[in-house]
Amino acid sequence: MKLEKTKHIRERRRRQLEEEAKIAAFAEEEHEKKEKAAWDEEKLTALMNRTLDTYFEKRKKEKQHRTTVPVAPEGYYIPAQPPAAVRALPRQAPQVAPAQTVDRTNPDHPDYNPYLKLFNLK
Fold first, then answer.
1. pTM, 2 dp
2. Max CA pair span of the chain
3. Please, what are the averages of pLDDT over each run of 10 residues along the chain (122 residues)?
4. CB atoms within 10 A of CB 113
């Protein structure tokens, strides 16, 4: 009688153990895949060598295409010379326009309402 009552409990426990076993197997497979896909020392070394080889080949091609500037026989040395005299021109003070006062009490004045101008209404 007691065995029949606890049968569903044992069945649930069995299913739970099966699910845990499936999950563990799946996790182990994923772990193995990651280990296989990981970069080992040989792969990294090969990649670094290929990268360096292509870099140096590219640099060599760039150097061949560069144009060199011929050096003049006397060289680039120019003896120092005093700076040329520059006469300063007198500056004129900028003219300040007289400040205009806006009569905002006059409705006929264009600046009576600045919002009209702001929104292109006038």
1. 0.30
2. 121
3. 81 94 94 80 90 94 80 68 78 75 71 77 68
4. 13
